[in-house]
Specification:
It is built from 12 helices and 6 strands. The protein is an alpha/beta fold.
């Protein structure tokens, strides 16, 4: 399976491992008895990456121990389609987003208008999609995908999720009091786990670093961080180090501008009580 997000990620790691040894692609190809073109295709994901080829490369590069095990595991996973790749017609952009969520060590989500997708309940997600003009049939297919994404928070090696959310998100009664009460109770529950941190940007803070736009920052174990910006029905990844640095700076500012975890929890609790009192 060539040229998928996961294949490209592994190819990049193999290229980095070779570069770290000081070997050129030509030198590595000679060591392996391969053509230089084959090495190039493997390192750019233009050729299917097989476990045996990865093992041969790692042996030649003298990559051992846990690092070798990790890269071989990645190679095996490429041969097994991810859940979103099986029987679903999903846009390449969404596939790339799902892949980034799966591979990330930490995700920082800055939200001004909505609860982030990985914390949305079914009814909240359905309401958002419907009111955004998504066809009913597409809503029925997309909502389960959105809910499935949340498994990254409860798997054996869960993603660390940090959310900076404007208080206005809690004040906006998406779907009415019943839907919001359920949604915010879900956020409450997630915030009590060790790997999820909710930080509220209260109205009292006035202007803050997040007002320039919502974004999601992905940090990985080995790769450079990337930023995802989503518009109405499209999105884009930003991976230039200089550009990503600007978003890292914004996160640093938000750390000082947002309420701490305890105060954020109190704000969240107050909105849960509000919607519960209004619910039918």
């Amino acid at each position: 399976m060539a040229d998928t997000p996961r294949a490209r990620a592994l190819a990049k790691e193999l290229r980095a491992a070779r570069t770290a040894t000081g070997l050129t692609a030509r030198e590595l190809s000679r060591m392996l008895g391969w053509s230089e073109a084959k090495v190039s295709r493997l390192e750019t994901a233009r050729r299917g990456i097989h476990v045996e080829s990865v093992e041969a490369i790692l042996t030649a590069l003298k990559v051992n121990g846990s690092e070798r095990d990790r890269l071989i595991k990645l190679a095996r996973e490429i041969r097994e389609p991810a859940w979103w790749e099986v029987g679903r017609d999903i846009p390449e952009q969404l596939t790339a987003l799902l892949d980034a969520e799966q591979r990330a060590k930490r995700i920082t989500s800055v939200q001004l208008n909505l609860i982030p997708g990985v914390l949305q309940t079914e009814e909240y997600a359905r309401e958002i999609m419907t009111l955004s003009g998504v066809d009913a049939a597409d809503v029925d297919e997309r909502v389960p995908i959105r809910l499935k994404r949340q498994a990254i928070l409860t798997r054996s090696n869960p993603v660390e999720l940090r959310v900076f959310v404007d208080e206005a998100v809690f004040a906006r009664p998406v779907g009415g009091a019943d839907v919001m009460a359920e949604q915010l109770r879900h956020v409450q529950s997630a915030s009590r786990t060790e790997n999820v941190e909710i930080r509220v940007l209260p109205r009292s803070v006035g202007a803050h670093a997040g007002l320039s736009g919502a974004f999601v920052l992905f940090e990985f174990e080995r790769s450079r961080p990337v930023v995802y910006i989503e518009a109405r029905r499209s999105g884009a990844f930003i991976d230039s180090p200089d550009d990503v640095e600007l978003f890292l700076d914004s996160v640093g500012l938000l750390e000082s501008q947002a309420s701490d975890s305890a105060s954020s929890g109190a704000i969240l609790d107050s909105y849960v009580l509000k919607y519960e009192s209004e619910a039918t």
